[in-house]
Amino acid sequence: MIEQTQAALDRGEQAMILLNRRGYSFAVLCRACGAKLECQNCAIALTHHKPQNGDDMAREGQRLECHYCGYRRTVPARCPQCDSEHLYYLGAGSEQGEEKLAEIFPSARIGRMDRDTVRGRYDLERLLARLHSGEINLLVGTQMIAKGHDIHGVTLVGVVGCDHSLSMPDFRAAERVFQLMTQVSGRAGRGELPGRVVVQTYYPDHYAIVAASTHDYLSFVEKELKYRRWMHYPPFGVLANVLIQSAKLEEAAGWAAILGKWFEKAKPEGVRVLGPCTAPVARIKGIYRFHLILKADRRDALQRTLKAMLAFMDREEIPRRHVVVDVDALHLM
Known about the structure:
The longest helix has 18 residues, at 249-266. The strands form 4 sheets. This protein has a 5-stranded parallel beta sheet with strand order 7-8-1-9-10, with helices on both faces. It folds into 3 domains: 1-19 and 111-231, P-loop containing nucleotide triphosphate hydrolases (Rossmann fold, 3-Layer(aba) Sandwich), CATH 3.40.50; 25-91, no CATH class; 238-327, Alpha-Beta Plaits, CATH 3.30.70.100. It has helices spanning 2-10, 94-104, 121-133, 173-185, 207-213, 217-231, 249-266, 299-316; strands spanning 14-19, 27-30, 47-49, 63-65, 72-73, 87-90, 110-113, 138-141, 154-160, 196-200, 238-246, 271-284, 287-296, 323-327. Helix 4 runs parallel beside helix 5 (207-213). It has 8 helices and 14 strands. With 333 residues, the chain is an alpha/beta fold. Strand 12 and strand 13 (287-296) form a beta hairpin.
């Protein structure tokens, strides 16, 4: 990827690098006790951000930020759990990508496109104008760079770390990776010159990666539909995500257990129930979250089951405002 990028820049062309993570590092760990620095409101690791042109060793101006609730704190000098000074910054985001590219390609005119540099429409317009004029010849960014930009000077697209999404606990994970890679690949070669895409991946044999790299939509759909049919996921079934949430852990866990026992006893015909269990993101903005996933072959069976569940909740005095029923859920997080 470095060789191809340098060659494109030497020819006077432009390149884009997709690094679909905001911030500088996406987690901070203590190497002594293993503790992860998490948000005080959400069960998610805080993302490390550095100011532009900041010194690597200086903590002034740096911050840890939660991308779910917006909580921020300064970067600690020592571990809050064990007071160790051995903090380890894990992973690379778009900020670090910009910094590393500046080291590798010192003569390149580098820009970055993510939610930290593009706060509104005018920020985006200014950045795109710099791209069109050639003021920027190397752009790094998150999935924002994949969204339909028509820059004729871009002949190379590099994809880094896109495959981490394949490990997400969501049946649409492969579809989203294929979609994003296909979108960003379309940014290269939109002018008279041919385009090229270079992908770095830990899963070079995964069908989503292979199909995206060969622009083989039919191959991806064939394999993805086979998996969906086998697991009775949409479009071969209907699905609902029942999310139970409360500011009190014992309330959320108790209501989830009550609903789980009711489903186990009711055995709704034509509906398979998974859970209850902790949601993939167990707490957001101070709210604890549990969920059940309902799968059915027929929509009427799912609707009958959900109506019966709501009636049971009313009898058990489980507040409806604490239960979100997401039919045809797009995300299971």
